[in-house]
Every structure is written in structure tokens, then in C-alpha cells.
Amino acid sequence: LQSRKVEDEDDSPDTYWRAGLSRTTLRRALQALGRPVGEIEDLEVTKRSRSGRVLEIRVVGSEGGVVLTGRDLRQALGGSTLKSTLFEIQRSDDGFVIAGSGRGHGVGMSQWGARAMASRGAKYPEILEHFFPGALLERAVLEESSDVSDTTVRVGGER
């Protein structure tokens, strides 16, 4: 899967977001992961993907340090706090401010991108082709009594 941009997908309320992260919240999240480091002293991105997403983040505490994946940190803090792994870290008086963009993992189908394409008249095969080029969409009968017929639709309009 690859990240695919769509005109007007920036209408999403999660295009840009900010989250305050206290040192206490971060300490508790690390404890819940089984990776305690004591009182949080520093938080630093150490590795990013080609698209800028956080792959690794180093947390330094009074009792040691730990390197986490961006996904692990997102899971520990919750998807409503850390909406994606595309973010920057800024220090604040009581901790950190995370400034990010998007919601999710950055690959696959953007819900807001699909919505924007549909509002411009795109039908589902065109939308799926944009996000999943070359994919094969199949409809299968789940039960013999089902009204759904066996069909195969190649994304891009071929049958």
C-alpha cells in the first residue's frame, strides 16, 4: 500500500491537530506498556519513514531510557490523543505538545479523500483504483440462498 493524496481531502477535521502531553501522562502510558523510565526528561523522534511518519521515538527518564515505535506510542496514548504517527514534538512547561496531521496509518483509503472524490462524481471503481491500483474486487456468494451473484470486477472498470 502507498500513501495517495486527493484534492480536497484536507477538508478533514483531522488534517492538522495538536495534543498537549504532560510528563505524567507519558510516564503512565510507558508504565502501562511495561516500559517504565521514571520521571520523563526528554522525548525525541529518532527515525522517520520516507513520508515523514515517526518510526522510532526515544524517551529519556530519570531511571533510564527506552526506544519505542511510533505505533507503540500511539497505541499507549490512544488514537484520540495521538491521531497518527505523522507528528512533530515541541516542549512545553509541563511536558510536550504534539503537532500532527491526519488520522491513521497513512496508507490505504483516506475516508476524507474518498468522500472528496465521490462529491466530484467519482464512482466506487475509480475511488478504489486511486487508492488500491491494480487491486481485484470480487463479490462471492456466501450462502446458496443468497441473492448475490458471483462477479469479479477489476478495479478500473473492467469486468
**SSE pattern, N- to C-terminal:** EHEEEHEEHHEE
Give the CA-CA distance, first to last residue. 23 Å
Annotation field: number of helices: 4
Strand order of the largest sheet: 1-6-5
Mean pLDDT: 81
**Radius of gyration over C-alpha positions, nearest whole angstrom:** 21 Å
- Beta-strand content: 25-35%
Rough shape? elongated
Strand runs, count: 8
Largest sheet: 3 strands, antiparallel
Low-confidence stretches: none
Could you say which structural class the secondary elements and strand pairing correspond to? alpha+beta
Helix content: 10-25%
Feature tags:
8 strands, alpha+beta, single chain, 159 residues
Describe this structure in words.
It is built from four helices and eight strands, in the order βαβββαββααββ. It has helices at 23-32, 70-77, 111-119, 124-131; strands spanning 16-22, 40-48, 54-61, 64-69, 87-92, 95-101, 136-139, 151-154. The strands form three sheets. Strands 1-6-5 form a three-stranded antiparallel β-sheet. Strands 2-3-4 form a three-stranded antiparallel β-sheet. The longest helix has 10 residues, at 23-32. It starts with 15 loop residues before the first strand and ends in a 5-residue tail after the last strand.
Topology:
Elements: E1 16-22, H1 23-32, E2 40-48, E3 54-61, E4 64-69, H2 70-77, E5 87-92, E6 95-101, H3 111-119, H4 124-131, E7 136-139, E8 151-154
Antiparallel strand pairs: 1-6, 2-3, 3-4, 5-6, 7-8
Give a summary of the structure in a few sentences.
With about 160 residues, the chain is an alpha+beta fold.
